[in-house]
Amino acid sequence: MRAVVYSETGPSSVLEVVERDLPEPGPGEVRVRLVRSGVNPTDWKFRAGMMAGHDEVVPGQDGAGVVDAVGPDVTSYAVGDRVWLVLAQHGRPYGTAAEFTVQPVGRVAPLPAVASYDLGASLGVPAVTAHRALTAGEDGPARLEPGALAGKVVLVAGGAGAVGNAAIQLARWAGATVITTVSSDEKADLARAAGAQHVVNYREGDATSEIRAIAPDGVDIAVEVAPAQNIGIDLDVVKVHGLVSIYANNGGDELTMPLRAAFGKNLRFQFLILYTLHEHLVRAAVDDVNAAVAAGALRVGADAGVPLHHYPLEQTAAAQDAVEGGAIGKVLIDVTTP
């Protein structure tokens, strides 16, 4: 099989396409023929030096394809099942930038009939992260479903990003009113396409005042991508007993804030990353994401605010470079023909 690998960390030039033996599934595992592989920022960050410990790595946490073989004792999947993958390369050397991957059944999810492989390969990291960001509150729902966030106001920072887009779509499906902040008219259009009812361009005015004008009582949840830059806004606009979910460090690695402001509102700060998230939370997110997909509430494509950028497997380095360069939308690798 063809696979993209690297044996040393560094720039995208360390990636190469090689031929490898077809892996066989063991007990509790399935082999998936990948149709699409999704590229996330963690892929290039791991490759650039954040990850070590394997002699050879096939990158890629997300992907979608068809079950091609099942290991002993596997009864939940059969050959021919359409599936999507979550955390495929976490703690393992071989991810989704290959024609085949062997995965434990816990990292495999059925792909609803209404979903394309493009959507399936776009779900894992962005949608599961967004789900956790929306469900980590003290008095909020642990699971998402229609009506779970009814009456709530959600602020999504960076609504044109992959996680931000997923958060908008999931929050709207669950019944929330969504406000999002963006940095350009182009990104504002994408956020509206995703379903945001209110869009604030933080480069054109006072974001705090505009958010307060929309939600005078404050917002219940802030999904935060740039806490170092936005903490002042969050402290001003999140209501008492509200939630600030922080999933990235855009704009700075150090967070400083006035503690009394946070104390006074009994705020909950939820820092989150998927790689140490408890398995039961990942599975709950996968189940809810699949329900949203089946309902047509979670989509990709320009009309959903997620322009798609396709690269062949041989151009995985260029695909990672595009993500590192801030490509707007979702970067996908076309691995095999559906």
TrEMBL record:
Residues 10-333 form the Enoyl reductase (ER) domain. It comes from the Bacteria. SMART domains: PKS_ER. Coiled coil: none annotated. Pfam families: ADH_N (PF08240), ADH_zinc_N (PF00107). Keywords: NADP. The keyword Transmembrane helix does not apply. This is NADPH:quinone reductase. It comes from Nocardioides conyzicola. The lineage of its organism: Bacteria, Bacillati, Actinomycetota, Actinomycetes, Propionibacteriales.
